[in-house]
Amino acid sequence: MKNLRRISMVFIFVIVSSLQPISSHAGESNYDESIIINLDSKISESTINKVQEKYSNIETNYIKELDLLVIDNIKPSQFSAIKDIAKEKLDAKAIIEDKEISLPDKSKQIPAKVALSSQFTEDNDTLYDSWLWNIKQVTNDYRSYHINKGSHNTKVGIIDSGIDFNHPDLKNNIVDTGESFVPVEDNTQDFYGHGTSVAGIIAANGDVKGVGPNLGLVPYKVFDKNGKSKTSWVISAIVKATEDDMDVINLSLSTFLSKKDKEDRETIKLFEKAFKFARKHNTLIVAAAGNHGYDISNSKKLAQQLGKPKDNILHLPGGDKDVITVSATTAQNTKASYSNYGKNISIAAPGGDLDPSFLDTNKVDLYSLVWTTSPVNIPQTPLSKSLGFQKGYEPTLGTSVAAPIVTATVALLKTEYYEKYGEEMPSRKVEENLYQNTDHVENLDKNEVGSGIVNAYESLLNIER
User: Fold this and answer.
1) Shortest CA distance to 133 belongs to which of 337, 396, 370?
2) With contact defined as beta carbons under 8 Å apart, do 417 and 459 qualify?
3) What's this model's pTM, rounded to 2 decimal places?
4) Strand-strand pairing, 324-329 and 347-350
5) N or C of the chain: less Cβ packing under 10 Å?
6) Distance CA 244, CA 236 (A)
7) Please, what is the Cα angle at 105 between 99 and 108, to 5 degrees?
């Protein structure tokens, strides 16, 4: 669907460190350090080769579109020497430590042992459909399918933990194997689960349905089997997905960066350049707002909420002006208790929540959760099994599953526009349509839901040239 105009820009960075686990079963990182170098001018292949020859264990990856040189697998004992080379031989403008990239905070995750306030009573014919309130809401009870279900010509890049290639509801919509940026995992099969959940919201087509059940999916793996990631992996994936002509990229991940910290400021610039690169090539980025329940539009207030009152902190990628930032709403059309909010929220989408009275009753309303696909290679939870679900379907909640609803809607708009007018839909028109056709709910303000709750049906119905 897209014709990518390749360009070159001049800059490079240096980034170091591994990420902390985002779940209790995530182990300690075994990755060596990595750096990204920001240069004043382009780097020659011979210079890269000299560094590689001097340190045979390292791996180099030159992202020419941004003039980024990533050096991986640096032993701790080598780091100081390679940093000196970056300064002296590679004309580095800045050397910074890598920053943590995580999946949106799971502190509001489903408790392991709770009472249930909903009981399943329907037969197997309606087992799966009964739980898809979020998909029904934004598709107007699947009426949007009659307008457009998507196309494999419209490609959605999922930068996450991979996708389960064996899942019956997803495998026919995976149009490319994509690429893994995790050093020890050279394939994009999902061993963690998060990416498969995201993919199901976008384009599941089986027992459960996504917003666009015929859309094309492409995985870019940046989270390993323990949920760990690095800034350099995410930046590399954004550039590669843009190069691969993705029509839209989903980023259900987040990080906090200090505007007072010199190294963090450089990392912020790195992200901003990657976002602008994607936008320049008409690849839209949709990002989760995060699950901390914080105001991410006020950097001083955010710092206070994070327990750093003298700091000045940004949340990325959600919150950046060059991405579509998605907050989460509930089945009752309220702001989800965990969802971040603020003036930089672009739009909202159903992300589910616990029962509104959970804190008082310790009960979970199953119909308030979001049900989606899960890797068939991961053990099924007792809850899913007790409700009669087959392996490969689990409940979840969060801005991580709200963002892909918007991602799918963007992809559907691009599909419909191309099929109607024979040309690619400009990003500006996509966003105008998206924001002008939302659902507005009383008592929900712009700081909570941006332009409103996304409505795929109305957006497709009112598409214009």
Assistant:
1) 370
2) no
3) 0.89
4) parallel
5) C
6) 12
7) 170
